[in-house]
Design brief:
7 helices, binds zinc ion
């Protein structure tokens, strides 16, 4: 499936790494990502939903991740970790949960390539989009128009246009793309069409 995603219209592969602590679920780690790296040259946008991202960061860099996103909730001062990631030639991002204020990430914008705004509570797929978080997207976009804004959670044809209108550059879609009955290609085309229709 990974091998076909580029032709299907995906711009990147978003990998949700869950440690069973920061979020209740457990997914996969660097060894599997290193395996998947061989299947596609799409950028690997890796979202580390974990308590101690610093402990494993070099494994994820080694595995071939292009973007590493860590959560501000577990890092009182993420500066040195972000700088380490970038010094290895990998892009660095900070993510924040729906309940976390945007002020928690704004002091670190100079050390970032992207901000990932969570539009659902992380850890489980299929939740509904919280439109209130778009205010955070607008705020970062007004402070730093050059920074890539990504949104994660509950993105589908009905919610994508508002996210793009608020300034999101990259939409993470899981359930909307990998659903029964529709191919990823058709689902991605429907998402793109929803955004075009409203622009
Ligand atoms: Zn994610």
């Amino acid at each position: 499936m990974l091998a076909g995603l580029k032709a299907d219209g995906a711009k990147a592969v978003h990998l949700d790494v869950m440690d069973g602590h920061f979020v209740p679920n457990f997914t996969y780690g660097a060894p599997l990502i290193a395996d998947w790296r061989k299947a596609t040259n799409l950028p690997f946008d890796t979202h580390l939903m974990m308590d101690n991202p610093g402990q494993y960061i070099d494994d994820f860099i080694e595995a071939g991740c292009d973007i590493l996103i860590v959560h501000i909730e577990v890092l009182p001062d993420p500066r040195s970790l972000l700088r380490h990631i970038r010094s290895c030639g990998v892009e660095a991002g900070l993510s924040l949960n729906p309940g976390t204020p945007i002020e928690s990430v704004t002091p670190f914008l100079d050390d970032l390539d992207c901000v990932l705004v969570m539009s659902v509570q992380p850890g489980f797929g299929g939740q509904s989009f919280q439109p209130g978080v778009l205010e955070k997207v607008r705020r970062v976009k007004s402070l730093r128009p050059d920074l890539r804004l990504c949104i994660d959670g509950g993105i589908k044809a009905a919610t994508a246009p508002a996210a793009v209108e608020a300034g999101c550059d990259l939409l993470v879609a899981g359930s909307a793309v990998f659903q029964g009955g529709v191919s990823p290609k058709e689902a991605l085309a429907a998402l793109a069409a929803s955004v075009r229709r409203s622009s």
